Amino acid sequence: MLSLALFTAALVAPALAAPAPAPQGITLSNSATQAPITMCGTAQNIVLTDTPWIVYNMFYNQRQTRGSMCTAYSSVSKPSNGNKLIKWAAVTDIDYVQSTNNVPKGYTFVGLTQNLETRLSAISSIPASYDWTRTNSTAYKGNIAFDFMTSDTKGDSTSGAAQELMLWLEYTGGQLPIGWVEGPTATIPSLFGTSWKLYQGVNLDTGILVSSLLPDKMFTGSFKGDLKEWLNALVKVGVFKSSTFVNVGNAGTEPFYGKAVVNATLGLQINL
Ligand SMILES: *[C@@H]1O[C@H](CO)[C@@H](O)[C@H](O)[C@H]1NC(C)=O
Ligand SMILES: *[C@@H]1O[C@H](CO)[C@@H](O)[C@H](O)[C@H]1NC(C)=O
């Protein structure tokens, strides 16, 4: 099932994107016939029906932005010995404005549309690979992250009982997670080849608890791992139970300001 209950993660909370009228709304397509497309609208996206993905330009703070944020879909490939991969890019040209430098302007991402709304305990694996390069020609603030949502209620990603989980791979320009001021609530000594610190706090606009895992050593353009290990690590430190539902999952980048292109190749799927 396609979950449209997509969300955003933010230091300053966004409004949830309402479905917008065409041509910004959901567009169904087949990756075999879909030409590369650049989407710059506030909620412009494309569902690639023969893949596990939606590609989304969620420009939720466009009104606070001087500049543009676009998401470019390029192609889908299927290596003979592996899972499908999607090539896409986040293209941002956002002026630095003092009063909004701490406001994420949007989220450009690839989200899952398949095998969601499943209990974590019923998921066999979440194989993921995220390879990226970021080329910025001005000072840039933003991160590279996975972002999932869970709840003890199937399908819930908006109530106060839902939880948002972020796995930050890399961040620059001074971006900090919700809960930074209070300090880490847990440490995870060994996961995906590094140690991590967990920061937690409620996003005051959505009322949703955000649990962000930040690596002690940032990834430098390449990540590979089974994201079920991340979610299991959160179970182990008591964030939720393994009976919780995984309702949303995606990977992307949240720009605050700067002129940059993030070119990425992503593999991400839920195997039941
Ligand atoms: C890219 O962004 C980083 C972080 O803001 C900054 O330190 C660096 O100078 C930027 N590169 C250029 C060419 O402006
Ligand atoms: C990076 O993305 C931009 C925007 O889609 C594209 O023009 C460029 O060719 C990409 N570069 C690479 C190396 O894929």
TrEMBL record:
Keyword set includes Cell membrane: no
Record-level Gene Ontology MF annotations: carbohydrate binding; cellulase activity
InterPro entries from the UniProt entry: ConA-like_dom_sf, GH11/12, GH12
Signal peptide: 1-17
GO biological process, one term: polysaccharide catabolic process
Keywords for this protein: Carbohydrate metabolism, Glycosidase, Hydrolase, Lectin, Polysaccharide degradation, Signal
Pfam family, one: Glyco_hydro_12
Family, similarity comment: Belongs to the glycosyl hydrolase 12 (cellulase H) family.
Protein name: Concanavalin A-like lectin/glucanase
